[in-house]
């Protein structure tokens, strides 16, 4: 086993990221404003950041094979101009009609827009430069500098910014839509959000790709929820098989802040998501639900961290996946309770359903508890579809591919009732239904 690990580490995944590589990318940038300075700083930090390795406890089961970055060209993207006056930012499509129906969200259009700043990074720098600069630095200092996240910011293709000012109740969700297109390209997206004190907001980020697209999608989503505020967050990825994806989600919760988050992940070659939630204020709470669906040869790497830095905080995390074809999943979940974080309450569960032979699952929940008056629960289950279940469906005239879709639907449907927000629940259900419909249509061809 030692020989295998050494052999795997000889090929440096990050070798293409040289000073010359960054300098070539920098030639395509306009001016030398604060955003480009931030890119430069992020690149320098990335070069100093440790390289993720299977020897690290946090990446013990992560499969980095297939994440070949060599030969990829970093490219810039623009937001679609016609969306600027609306609650949607979209990149990678030509007109509003190109936005898939399943990605629409309910639009109320009654918001006090003067209290909401929503736009590109460039627009954010113009509208509130000091606050924007402070937010860019905040996540460099409050969170461990992961190499992929720093590189996403260094080679930023486009950025989205949301700021909901204090005492504002947003009713229309802000939406970011990203479509990956191009051959052998690297695209890096960052979304940055701050919800000020005693406010409420919703953010939806959908990512899909064109059929013939290939390369690497590297993205970050950084969120601060201030005291007494509530954020609903919906994040979906549906990628074609020649795309590798690395997504880093970092959330900072202050006193009595509330996060409700739901994710759907499907497709891609290596599809990695890292979620790090810091409970920095008493009374903060997070409810996180996620689904991943493997249909062919996808490899899902899912890393979650519920970091209770202070007491009287609550987290509830539930991730569930179905695997078929030759897909695999690697889940590493960690709950950390600081020594003075008494009366913390944390729950973590990972469930998997294997639909056929040839799939693999690694699930490793972990607790690091420093306080003695806490409640922590974690667990992982993996089940296989029995021959009897398959026979029951086949005996009723249902072919095998359709039977797999029905079994997957029945298994993951347990997530939807856990979603409390009506907006999140409806958006989650609509996207999941469309994904299963596409899967069924492909299976029946």
Q: Would you write up a description of this structure?
A:
By secondary structure, the chain is an alpha/beta fold. The chain has one domain (2-384). The chain is 23% helix and 38% strand. Strands 1, 3, 4, 6, 8, 10, 12, 14, 16 and 18 form a ten-stranded mixed beta sheet that branches. α3 runs antiparallel to α6, α4 (121-127) crosses α5 (129-142) and α8 runs antiparallel to α9. The radius of gyration is 21 Å and the shape is globular. The two termini are 42 Å apart. Mean pLDDT is 88; it is low at 1-10.
Q: Percent of residues in helical segments?
A: 10-25%
Strand content: 35-45%
Number of helices: 9
Mean pLDDT: 88
Count of spatially separate domains: 1
The helix/strand order is HHHEEEHHHEEEEEEEEEEEEEEEEHHH
> How many E strands?
19
Outline type: globular
Please outline the helices and strands.
Layout: H1 2-10, H2 19-26, H3 34-48, E1 73-74, E2 88-91, E3 116-120, H4 121-127, H5 129-142, H6 147-154, E4 158-164, E5 174-180, E6 185-195, E7 200-209, E8 215-225, E9 230-239, E10 243-253, E11 258-267, E12 270-279, E13 285-294, E14 299-308, E15 314-323, E16 328-337, E17 345-354, E18 360-369, E19 375-384, H7 387-394, H8 400-412, H9 422-443
Helix pairs in contact: 3-6, 4-5, 8-9
In short:
The protein is 23% helix and 38% strand. The radius of gyration is 21 Å and the shape is globular.
